[in-house]
Amino acid sequence: MSEIVVNSNKNPNILLARNTPVALVVGAASFFGSHLVDKLLSKNIQVIGVDDLRMGERKNLSKAIENKDFHFYIDSFDQDLNLKFNRLDYIFIVSHLKLDIKEVMNIFKKFKPRLLLISSIDLYDKKGAGKDIEYLTEVESAIAKVAKGDNLNARILRLGAIYGPRMNFNLLGPDPLIRLIQQSLTGDLQKEISLDFSSRALFVDDACDLAVKCIFAGATAQKIFDGVNITPIKVAEIKQILLDPVWYENKDFKPSELPPWPTPNLEKTIKFLNWQPKNKLVSNLKETLSYFKENEIKVPELEVRSEKLEAEKESEQWKMKKAEELRGLRLEGSGERAKTVSVSTISLWIGILIISYGLIWPIFQISFGVLTYKYQLSEAIKDLEKGEFEKSLSKVNQAGAAQTQAKSVLYSLEPLQKIGFKTQFEIGDKLLSLATLSLDSAQNTILGMQALITSLRSITGELNESPQGYFDKAQTFLRSADEDLSKAEALTKSEDFKANLPKILKSDIENLSERLTLYANLVKKARSLSGILPEIVALKGEKNYLVLLQNNSELRPAGGFIESFAKVSFEGGKLKKLQVNDVGVIDGQLNLHVEPPPEIKKDLNQANYYLRDSNWEPDFPTSARQAEWFFTKETGERVEGVIALDISAIEDLLSVVGSLNLADYKEKIDSLNLFEKAVGTAEAGFLTSLTTGLFNKLFFLPNQNWPEIMTSLSRSLERKHMSIYLDDPILFSYIVSENWAGLMPRPSLGDEEFKADFLALVEANLGVNKANYYLDRSYNLETNVDKEGEILHKLKITYTNRSPSDVFPAGKYKNRMRIYLPTGSKLTKVLWGEDDMTKKVTSFMDYGRTGYSFLIELLPKEQKELVIDYSTPVRVEFKQGKAQYKLEVIKQAGTLKDPFEWRVIYPIDMKLASGQAREIGPQQYSVKTDLSEDRIFQLQFIRP
Prior knowledge:
Blueprint: E1 22-26, H1 31-42, E2 46-51, E3 70-74, E4 90-93, H2 102-111, E5 114-120, H3 131-149, E6 153-159, E7 162-163, H4 176-186, E8 198-199, E9 202-203, H5 204-216, E10 224-227, E11 233-234, H6 235-243, H7 245-250, H8 266-273, H9 281-294, H10 309-334, H11 337-340, H12 345-360, E12 365-367, E13 370-372, H13 374-386, H14 389-412, H15 422-459, H16 468-493, H17 495-499, H18 503-536, E14 542-551, E15 561-571, E16 574-582, H19 583-587, H20 598-603, H21 620-635, E17 641-646, H22 647-657, E18 660-662, E19 667-669, H23 674-680, H24 686-700, H25 706-718, E20 722-726, H26 729-737, E21 757-765, E22 775-785, E23 791-801, E24 813-822, E25 826-832, E26 835-836, E27 842-846, E28 849-858, E29 862-871, E30 882-890, E31 899-905, E32 911-912, E33 924-930, E34 935-942
Parallel strand pairs: 1-2, 1-4, 2-3, 4-5, 5-6, 6-10, 7-9, 14-17, 21-30, 22-31
Antiparallel strand pairs: 8-11, 12-13, 14-15, 15-16, 17-20, 18-19, 21-24, 22-23, 23-29, 24-28, 25-26, 25-29, 27-28, 30-34, 31-33, 32-34
């Protein structure tokens, strides 16, 4: 199709139909321009396409050129256009190369059409301004000036990265999604991967839809719109899809939900134009790859960055050493071949099984994100957890010797492939490949973790040198481990591999595949951490963070009453300053009145709002931003993020770092007596003194066990005893993806096959005491499904207040309760013991949920049951005899392991699908667990 010769240059008189609109597209042969042309033609709009072919290609218009309503003209716009047409309704300017738009402006003034300039989202990034951006800035200004001066109709669409069929890799930017597509097409997907965490690239069809909406919608003149993917997509997930798009398409893959990463005009664009991208990531990637492969289009190879070569060289030297060991073993084993070979088919088959199952599989074991051998590497993992990296590497090398020996045994049987056992040898070879990937990923993970831990020692000042080199090494080694695990995952999912496996191995390989996915995710976490830590600790520049010390013995919506705070400062990748103080010190400096939430004002009889109460929202990012605001108003200082941790998190850390001697209180505090001392000590500064001692021990004493410290922090993050908020949206998207942000989940925006049921209970102790230390609670939820699929819930919460008296720190539990349910839910009855509270309940809407609020009180030594009857709009709806039901139960930050029991009762014409355990009787299902973390339950019903 490269010989497209239809060209309006030869005939400047363009014949246009009278009754259909006409659009001029400048840059029509470009990647985006050609798709826009196709979109306009599909809407029965006549199109005049103009392009100088500097960034466009004729073949991009092969489809459009077959349409009688398309007219193509080649011109550079350096001189007057010799085009003759009598009307024009729309102008689209797509070209991003330097273009003299004077002639386009003349046409704009003459015909007064609607005009849309396709600009770039990069204009918002002042730091990244280049020549193209400077040009677009000038063009935007010129068009705005003409439109304002002549009262013309123009608007601007600033697009981010775009991908899809016809994309030109030489002209597109460095977006990670585009780079990964390029690598996939050149077969280099494993060689290099972007260190960026996510991508907002739009599929070209979604971008075209947005462009058309911009120009067709009313009241869009003189406005700027933004076009990027609303929700960022994890780069790691994009890579997995590209490795096997068909498999992910069959699994109906949906990307992980990351927080929206807005641009200045994105929210306005979505609401004003009622625009949403279709979010068909897998099919979009598949369509893009198919276009280039089916048309045999040569894609240029991506230039691999040369950074981190020293670490890569170290890894390569290790692999060469292993290759030498392998060659030595092969030579040693060559004299034994005659003894090994058996002519008996049965003996051979048994031998192959022994090799495949007895020598290889028994030593496979995964731990800490690494495929390892069962015996040799179990000790290596223990050494790794202790931070003894050299011992751990030594154990890996011992495992390598066992693997190479098994390999030499298989090689000794190679002559038998010629007598009918080729398939069996191929299986054995693939199993050995899994072993090799196991060793490589183990070695790279240990080296990567060693570098990452060493970087922490550098940050705290234990080492004098900059952490930069350690970050680079960690990223290189962990990237290699990630790639090896990805290859291993792909191998275990290969249909050819699974089809030829002996039955005795199939279940083991399936189990291995699941664990590979689990541990690959752990390596990805460590890898991502190594990528964002340089930004968090301000490798270039300075950053400050606010740390909130929350006492969860006095429970508050986002964790606990804020008693102390710390300001942590980093500069040049080093911990510069750490100050801990009582929150009352700066709350007293607030010189303006801030109206508190109504519940605080009423229930606490408190007229003002302070930092100590700022965590009133159960959504930690919302509370964190409120805390930032108070901190700035009270101190005049700014911070780039907020970290909250409670006494439970400190207790876990003390179990790792050991006891603390608090001289001011003449107390020795450890993980066993912390809660007792924290509750029993009346002085307000106890938590401040405790935290100061803990931070001094962590950051200023050498030889800390950082692997165990990181494990402790990870536990606290998972159990919501620690939460993180960062102002930087890119860094924060990683925090959210790991579920470390204490986010109150919002309803899904996309079209789901079924809507999830939802339950979140939020308590606030407003009794000015530490009653939560003495409090026990347990949950019992009964869900009734009727034959129409309607759902009714009865929630029972049993409270026991074991306070010995009403004397501080014990006392009455004064609890402002909030319950969050799906939008449209109805609360029918609330009983507190014998007291009917229904009329005392107030309703509200927040976080996309229906909410209810009420106050209950529990005296010392008293036990009561709270009973809540409610219904939700979620239904059990059958399609083709099957129905799904999903319930999400959210744990409140700061709470412990409260028991949770769920019982489902369903009608006789429904059954649970097979494989769902805990069915306790006819038409009943029950599960007992706890709320140490968020719980998600999913059931599948069938109708016989």
